[in-house]
Amino acid sequence: MTRLALTGARLLDGNGPAVAGATVVVDGDRIAEIRTGEEAAAISADRVVDLGGRTLMPGLWTCHFHATYHELGSRPNAPYGDEYPPGYTALIAAKNLQTALALGYTGVVGAGGAHHIEPAVHRAIVDGLIPGPRLWPSSRELSTTGHSNDSVPWHWGMPAPGAVRICDGADSFRQGVREEIKRGAKIIKLFVTGGHGTTAPKDRMEMTADELAAAIDAAHQRGALIRGHLVNKKAILLALEYGMDIVDHCDEMDDEVIAALVETGATVVPSLHFPKHFLESYGSGLGFSADAIRADLEHMYDIIPKAQAAGVRFVLGDDYGAVGFPHGMYGAEMRLYVEHAGVTPLEVIGWATRNGADMVGRGDDLGTVEVGKLADLIVVDGDPSADIGVLADSPPVAVLVAGRVVAGEL
């Protein structure tokens, strides 16, 4: 195997502050050595690349990703997830995943997709048919008859699996979860409440307690993670009590919710970029709902630093692919949390690296730059731990997955 030495690096390992003058040796697909100071000069390798002070850091993770979304909402009379033919949608998914990879996101976690396209594209990436990041493919969205995303009557009962699987009753949810896993999903997505960008009010429960418990239990029995669109406090606490792994949005997070999150070790994906962008794009055109969105944002900006200090695990990710919110806008999300929520750049980098890997149970070999771990790395100009704009505003100089350059160049 080829030994690659990356010298003259500002090393940002995902655990602590940047260290100048570091050398990282990659042997095959793994990190073999890390040296600093005078030891960094004595390196044996097949290829040596001087990074000239550029930052070397772990690959990024986006953990609420809709690979099949493209201008979602621009065709309001089309069934959700059937806006395009399935084959065309698969090409959309492949393109969106390649966009993420080129921007340094070597880990992507699905949050709901049309048909069973994410599992299929995942297989294509693993088989080397197409380039892409490490993908944890999602199921279709599971919820009950008439929930907020089951509101388009266009097909009038004609089969339209799209992005939704309707389940009613605990046994139906067990079967639905099992079938989605059988078709390749590693992440099960539930729509548990309204709110946060949906047409239903945030206090509405879309599932019963029995349905929620059955779905979570079924996912865990089959070794899958489960995530939920969860906005109101009652639903969040109930889901955490039953073992929910990932809380999407968590808009009514407070001290009690923070304590439950810390106790259970569940992960939160605040996904504030989309509502902020939506509010700025449409403003007064949203009517009274603009005030509600603004209030939710201000609440989350205030509570996130408190939750961060308490030990809640946060990750990045949002509803990219929605109308007016295309894939590729990921960087501005990091800037949002630094500039509006008061999270430090180093903390946000932890969300984007270590926390993503920990969320999917891969912290033993991904998420940080450590000897023995897989060499998923990015090289960037400048120091993002001092200026988050280094990550937010420009693509990486180079992106490596398992020690191989997959975007940019060394």
Number of helices: 11
How much helical structure, as a percent, in the residues? 25-40%
User: Low-confidence stretches at least 5 residues in length (pLDDT < 50)?
Assistant: none
How many separate structural domains? 2
What's the architecture of the largest domain, going by CATH? Alpha-Beta Barrel
Main pleated-sheet profile: 8 strands, mixed
Q: How large is the radius of gyration?
A: 21 Å
Shape: globular
- The CATH superfamily of the largest domain is known as Metal-dependent hydrolases
Which whole number gives the mean pLDDT? 93
Secondary structure: number of strands: 18
Q: End-to-end distance, in Å? A: 18 Å
Helix/strand order: EEEEEEHEHEEEHEHEHEHEHHEHHEHEE
Alpha-beta content class: alpha/beta
Using the coordinates above, name the CATH class of the largest domain.
Alpha Beta
CATH topology of the largest domain: the name is TIM Barrel
Q: Per DSSP, what share of the residues sits in E-state strands of 2 or more residues?
A: 15-25%
What features would you highlight for this structure?
410 residues; alpha/beta; Urease, subunit C, domain 1; TIM Barrel; eight-stranded mixed sheet; seven-stranded parallel sheet; 11 helices; 22% strand
